[in-house]
Specification:
- This protein is mainly alpha-helical.
- It has helices spanning 7-13, 16-35, 47-76, 87-109, 131-156; strands at 123-124, 129-130.
- It has one domain (14-156).
- It is 67% helix and 3% strand.
- A two-stranded antiparallel sheet has the order 1-2.
- α2 packs antiparallel against α3, α3 (47-76) runs antiparallel to α4 (87-109) and α4 packs across α5.
- The longest helix has 30 residues, at 47-76.
């Protein structure tokens, strides 16, 4: 006997924002864990504290992805732009996310003093931001879009 998701869950999963949030969290969480040694204090803290910090960071990454998705949807004049991606909304998604990432990192390492980079974090000259957060936004969001698009197309074929 196969159990299936209730209809209201299927409806929610057909929402592009749900797919963006889910895949963004799932891809960003391991990245956050792997880059933890590049931040001061992350290698020495209690395990559970580090798990909580990385979980919150991955949730923040998912929020950045959602905000960027909505920016791209505004440019594309529709939320289903990722089903037939075109360059303009894709660049809006990537550009807004990169901008939010740079501003967020600068604020966090600067006036907000939320975290500090360890000596092993390479810094991008001119931006004065760690390379790992920048690479995170350049590598993972295209994968998020790919997974979300394929999942939405698969759900669309279900009754």
């Amino acid at each position: 006997m196969t159990r299936s998701l209730p209809r209201n869950w299927i409806s929610l999963l057909r929402c592009p924002e749900a797919q963006i949030a889910i895949f963004s969290f799932l891809l960003n969480y391991p990245w956050e864990m792997l880059q933890a040694p590049l931040f001061k204090g992350m290698g020495e803290g209690a395990h559970w504290e580090q798990v909580k910090v990385c979980t919150l960071a991955a949730l923040a990454d998912a929020l950045i992805s959602l905000l960027s998705f909505w920016m791209a949807a505004a440019v594309a004049k529709g939320r289903l732009w990722l089903l037939k991606p075109k360059p303009t909304p894709w660049f809006a998604y990537m550009g807004s996310g990169l901008g939010i990432t740079i501003i967020g990192e600068r604020l966090a390492i600067g006036p907000l003093e939320r975290w500090q980079y360890s000596a092993s974090m390479p810094i991008v000259p001119g931006l004065e931001v760690g390379i790992s957060p920048l690479l995170q936004w350049l590598i993972l969001p295209p994968l998020v879009l790919w997974f979300a698009r394929n999942q939405l197309l698969g759900l669309a074929s279900r009754p």
